[in-house]
Amino acid sequence: MDIAAFRASLANAAPPAELSLALRALWLDARGDWDGAHNAAQADEGGTGDWVHAYLHRKEGDEGNAAYWYRRAGQPVCRTSLGEEWAGIAAALLKGAGSE
Q1: What share of the chain in percent tops pLDDT 70?
Q2: CA distance linking residue 83 with residue 100, whole number of Å
Q3: What is the pLDDT of residue 47?
Q4: What's the chain look like in SS3?
Q5: What is the domain partition of the chain in residue ranges?
Q6: For 17-34, what is each residue's pLDDT tens digit?
Q7: 48, exposed or middle or buried, with CB in 10 Å at 0-12, 13-18, 19+?
C-alpha cells in the first residue's frame, strides 16, 4: 500500500485489516479517534508504535511526554506541522515493514 491508497482508505468505515498497529493508530487519528489511535500505538511496543505515540502526545499538546516517546522511538522531536509529521510517519511506515 502506498500513501495515496492509505489516504483513500480513510473513506472506509474501518481501517484495512493488513495495517500494523502503528499504521492503524495513524488511520484512527486521521479519522478523529485520538483515544483509539493512542490505544493502538500503546499496544505496539516498539519503535514504530513509539514514534506514533510521540506524534499523538505532541498533537495533544503534551510536549514533555512526546519528547519521552520520541527518545524511545530513536527519533528527533518533530518541529514540522502535525499534518506534515503524520504524512511523514505514514509514508515511512508504509515504505518499510510497518504495513506487514
Answers
A1: 96
A2: 24
A3: 80
A4: CCHHHHHHHHHCCCCCCCCCHHHHHHHHHHCCCHHHHHHHHHHCCCHHHHHHHHHHHHHHCCHHHHHHHHHHHCCCCCCCCHHHHHHHHHHHHHHCHHHC
A5: 3-10+20-99
A6: 999 999 999 999 999 999
A7: buried
Using one digit for the tens of pLDDT, what is the confidence trace for 26-59? 999 999 999 999 999 999 987 899 999 999 999 9
Over residues 86-95, mean pLDDT: 96
**Angle 67-70-75 from CA coordinates, rounded to 5°:** 135
Q: Which three cell numbers stand for residue 43?
A: 499496544
Cα separation, 55 vs 52, whole angstroms: 5
